[in-house]
Amino acid sequence: MPSSEDQEATHDSTPTALVLASVRLPGKTECCDVHIRDGQVSAITPVAEQRGGPTAADARVLDLEGRFVVPGLWDEHVHMTQWALAANRIDLSGAASARAAVELVRNRMTAGTGADRTVTVVGAGFRDAVWDDVPSAEMLDGAAREVPTALISHDLHCVWLNSAAARRYGVQLPADGLLREEAAFAVTRELGKLPDDVVDGWVRTAGQEAAARGVVGVVDLEMTWNRDVWLRRIAGGFSSLRVDAGVYPEDLGRAADAGMRTGQTVDGGAGLLRVGPLKVLIDGSLNTRTAFCVDPYPHGGHGILTVSEAELVALLGRARETGFVPAVHAIGDGANQVALDAFAEAGTGGRIEHAQFVRQEDFARFGELGLTASVQPAHALDDRDAADANWAGRTDRAFPLRSLLDGGARLALGSDAPVAPLEPWLAMSAATARARNDGRGPWHPEQALTREEALLASTRGRGRIRAGAVADIAVLDADPLAAPDAVFAGMPVAATLVAGRFTFRGAGV
After folding, report:
1. CB within 8 Å of 436: residues ≥ 6 apart
2. b/e for 325-349, b at 16 or more Cβ within 10 A?
3. For residue 130, how far is the Cα from the chain centroid?
4. Does this model's pTM top 0.70?
5. What is the pLDDT of residues 314-350, one digit of tens each?
């Protein structure tokens, strides 16, 4: 996708000239001054030299006392509305079984939430792929009774409903109470239909929290006509970060008729909003056992392919004709093979989203076809047990960051929030350490990235601050190349700037 350096500077009340004085670049001991003018880095000079030269005499000088500066971070794959909603739903991520999830619902209702039958109780984040017991509508009925209740899996590909919720949303439930794929997506969209001012307030908070972690931009792949949603939010005061808003195939004609194309700055978006990629889902997910795989799952079936190769080739051709960069969701090794074959036949570049499970012979094709692998490293640690159970003996090519990079893919790191938190340092830590501080050793450490590689993949290939670049900057309290793993995973961020404007400023800055 186009670099964030192509984006317009955003409006703000910050002086047009600013010097970030006495800062260090990663891995360096000597300090320098970063000069900012009109939203761009105008120069990088030795400390105290030319402070009145390349920036101007009226520049504001901010002494950052040896802190480190890196380009602002991007999360290349989020569902921003779902991420904001998840923070206000029952957290099921810690449920180790279906019964434990039900107890979380029961406890919340006992505490007074969810007694109103006119309001659907919503939980999010369960992982049934690693449960020993089996969900059922009856089990959830026992806890929720006549209160409509919907529980969304962590990967968004599955929704567990009770009978009251099934009646409310007009769906026929299987015995396990689980809706999968498009049926689940449809209910999830209904669950998100809250007043705009409520959801927009939650999104504004989520944006502020992301800015506090050094984030300057996200690729938002919410399943909706997203452009107008973001125009409303920005008009309402959202200003924390840049947004590339994705488009789905059902809206491609509408977008093309409006003259939209990937990378285009959207009028009325205060320089923050651009048209994102064309998102195409062709398979399911690991947790739901719907990711399309070459070999069968332990309990049978290969998952599902929701778009045929011929249909995908046609979509990729339409994307090329209309100026859209295609972003193809492919998780299973079978789906990745189909996606690669389609890109080759269509003769166009683009992105493969997730690329969680890839055949050995397909890694080099990413480079040959000039593709970006948009990957979410935290999933490797969240889903290692599910992967070991469902892809047993083949996980050396699961979440294969090193193999993708060595195969010539351009890596772009993200979270898929709310599947994982919108937290780039967590993603970079997972990519480099392949472990968490939970007593478990690294999982397939041969697939790890270096920190330099992780930073490159989190900053749209920028890696380091350079003169002439847009002044999207994160100011850090530790050296990202030398800090201990625990510090790196929770990197202390002192400030964040978008086009030279502070979107976050810590107490010490």
Report:
1. 381, 429, 430, 489
2. bbbbbbbbbbbbbbbbebbeebebe
3. 23
4. yes
5. 999 999 999 999 999 999 999 999 999 999 999 999 9
